[in-house]
Amino acid sequence: MQEINEPVAHAQGVRLLLWRDDLINPDLPGNKARKLKYNLAAARQQGQRTLLTFGGAYSNHVAAVAAAGRLYGFDTIGLIRGDAPAEGRGLSVLNPTLAQAVADGMALHYLDRTAYRRRSEPAFIAEQLAHLGPAYVVPEGGTNALALPGCAELVAEIGQRTEFDALAVAVGTGGTLAGLLTGLAGQRHVVGVVALKNGGFLRAEIDALTEVAVDQTFTNYSVQTDYHFGGYAKHSAELLTFIQQFRERHGVLLDPIYTGKLFFGVLDLIGRGYFRRGSTVVAIHTGGLQA
Hints:
It is a single chain. The protein has helices at 7-12, 31-45, 60-72, 96-103, 113-116, 122-132, 147-161, 175-184, 202-214, 237-250, 259-271; strands spanning 2-3, 15-20, 50-55, 75-81, 106-111, 136-138, 166-171, 189-194, 221-224, 280-285. It is α/β, with parallel strands linked by helices. The strands form two sheets. Strands 1-2-10-7-8-9 form a six-stranded mixed sheet. Strands 5-4-3-6 form a four-stranded parallel sheet. It has eleven helices and ten strands. It folds into two domains: 2-29 and 145-285, 3-Layer(aba) Sandwich (Rossmann fold); 49-134, Rossmann fold (3-Layer(aba) Sandwich). 42% of the residues lie in helices and 18% in strands. Helix 9 links the parallel strand 8 and strand 9. The active site is at residue 59.
């Protein structure tokens, strides 16, 4: 836990803390490890030796599955959205995320955007397994019912360190936020700062996840959609400057896909009076620093 001293927080009477989930495990940091925890256990229980998942070329989740395979003895397959690199050019044409995934033992296969849109269809998944062999399938972003209990454990861990009134987290697929909601069980508040454009659909996704996991939906959260900086994996000079200045002030590196947008949004919300005076807000650094 790290205190974040920002003038806007002092002016608004808000105590701002940072939970450093990026430091928990350097090989498998952040919320991706939490989402995978019970999925890996299920794969082991089912006797599966291979993990298969989906993601874009800069996916934190793809990188995490590859690292988990290396650490815990699974073969891994990544079905990547987009065109394959030019043949014969090797790792030099892969971006750092995919290069690390390959170094961790992941076999990469590429899907055009039309095929990739079918990634959640049971028939399409069956086709891939018939072609690539049996595997435990982890959905894009690692978000499913088994992802939630791993993320829910964050609530107790943070609560052991401090009293708090609200948690704040970056949102991609909504799984981490949904897990936090199940851990809070309707108490206190969660703010989700959405990293993608047109993220209004996420509230229905989050409600569906908690309904499946704990047979309940929650109202003690908000989804903030004004801080996407153009959409998923998009950024601006303003955001990059913010990330650089944040590191200079606090010694913490944020990424331009998730956590940079999270903290930009949280500080803006504090300045707008979103959090009541006297409250303690814990923002969660979910890793993703290869970005």
